[in-house]
# Entry
Amino acid sequence: MRDDPPAAAELAAGGLFLDRELSWLAFARRVLALSGDRQLPLVERARFAGIVAMLHDEFFMKRIGGLKRQIRRRSTKRSLDGRTAREVLAACRAELLEQSRLLAGSLDRDLLPALAAAGMPLVAHDSLEPVEREHLRGYFEQAVLPILTPLAVDPEHPFPFISNDALNLAVLLPAGAHGKERFVRIKVPGNRPRWVPLPAGAGHVPLEQVIAANLDLMFPASPPTAVHFFRVLRGAEGDPPDGEDESAEALREPGSILRQVSAELKARKFAGVVRLQVDRGMPDEMATWIGRQLEADAEDVYREPGLLALRDLTELEAEARPELCFPPHRPAPHPRLRALPDEPGAMFEEIARGDLLLHHPYHGFDDSVLRFLEEAAADPGVLAIKLTIYRTGRESPIVQALAEAARRGKQVAVLVEITARFDEAPNIEWGQLLEKEGVHVSYGVRKLKTHVKLALVVREERGRVRRYAHIGTGNYHPGTARVYEDLGLLTADAKVCEETAAVFNQLTGATPPGRYRTLIVAPKSMRRRFVKLIRREAANARRGRESGVVAKMNQLQDPGLIRELYAASRAGVPIWLIVRGLCCLRPGVPGLSETIQVTSVVGRFLEHSRLFRFANGGEPEYYLGSADWMRRNLSKRVETITPVRDPEVQRQLEAMLEVYRQDNCSAWDCQPDGSYRRRHPAPDEPRRAVQEILRARAAGGPPPQPAVTAPESPATAGR
# Structure
């Protein structure tokens, strides 16, 4: 067996990488399958359909926009699997069209009829009874009409600016004095519910149809002759093509990061159109004309077979029908925090007894991480608090705790990453608010996005100073902590805390990165450390010692680490990769990756944690932290991974991985061609879904047994 990584040319020639974009869309396929899974509650299936539409929107804005920029620049860069940008774009469009067709078919033939049968129909306005129409007319007149603004297009009025992600009405009014029909655009207001309820819980009607049916109240002298719907998506900078710098172009030049990011946000509002959706009944002439006004390419016009803006299905309300939804999820307190007295220092004393492993959303965020920070803010013994903010909530109690700590005279330092995609504006606001409260605020590192998830508390205890750290895989966001699966470590380990302090000094003080011996820090040393760990496993396999790699992450794309995994596999190392989203590695290729298994888990909660286990000759090592194995994470971001050395926490991680290994219904196995096969229990085998089992364990009870229902609908079966 060869013990050196295969050459890049050899791998490219053999087609041994999967395309990043198509692998990303394969994840959307897996979510699409959940919308057709009749073992899931009906409303949740509808929400999964909305998530698919949301994923498509994100893909258009970030990835399609990036591919179109490559083509405009006439870039000769090829993807990992050897395709040109134009070839990748064509393949992505074909896959998106197919997924949209499957989604629309599933809605028409399965989900919408099932919702109607369950007494929760999404009703077309033209099928309503007269009394229901009159009710909606009253609602429109009182709650919607006053906030609508019709914008005409004529010689005196140019075509209006169409904002990103807005649903619009294209209204034709009868010919005026100039002898031509008049075009009017009306934006569907985003501050009104998309699904308008009918009386007595008889269902919901799409808001745009309510508006269209009552426009005679807006135009009493000339009621519309035709009304159609359209929606625009504009590109965002998103992720760069493979191999290019991730930093925004403006950030490569000296100057105020705040000013530069603010300018980028303004420019994004007017970015080019990457998708124009029109309803199926819109005449070709009108669709072409709107596309020309928006300067959209002809291939960017998509005629939708059903409702537009299906992402709003995620907002479908069903409070009166709890049996159609997942059981309410109530995170459990961590066992060691459940009975702690509510007195200063109690939590810190518990952490000093031994590391605590937090597993969200099974363990509560509010009574662990938030309590850690709130107690630090109130504890008179705490001298300083340091934290990174990548994404957080609108009414963030964490920000309030930091402000309170500053008001109490503690030294508070916060790194606010204001280039976090689509969270730039709120992060700027949080940073400015904290500055007004006396917090030391830093806005990131030039040319590097700060993705670390770190908190540090400095406390004086009996005449000496002691540090406490939280190192996590998720953002300090109480909202997402209820639906994202993440890990966190609360520790008083002196070496870990010392190097965490060094990371903060690097971030806020612009000091050169030190030599980290405990933490693994990107971009300084993370790639080198992971390569060393993988190669050690390969060496152990060749010597006949116990070897193995388990890596759980969101995405796997870095070609260098993929080559190292291929080499380790050829040396005989068993490798199990739990990758939720895109994965560019081909598993199970004879002679190259036959010892590699790639698993994706898709369920109620979004798998988000990053965890790594190396067998190390029978003395396993565990690591967790913020980084995926993506080129951007290893080379263009500040990331941290911590070793997990507490034996009890190691035991908990091993038990958690075993549950993932035994999943037989929410896990998907990647095939060598990049397709995924969902696991199904054997006829006499009990159903084992990892998220259900972990949720039940945290709550202290057995996993719930599912009801026997119809099999998965073939219309949306994932491939």
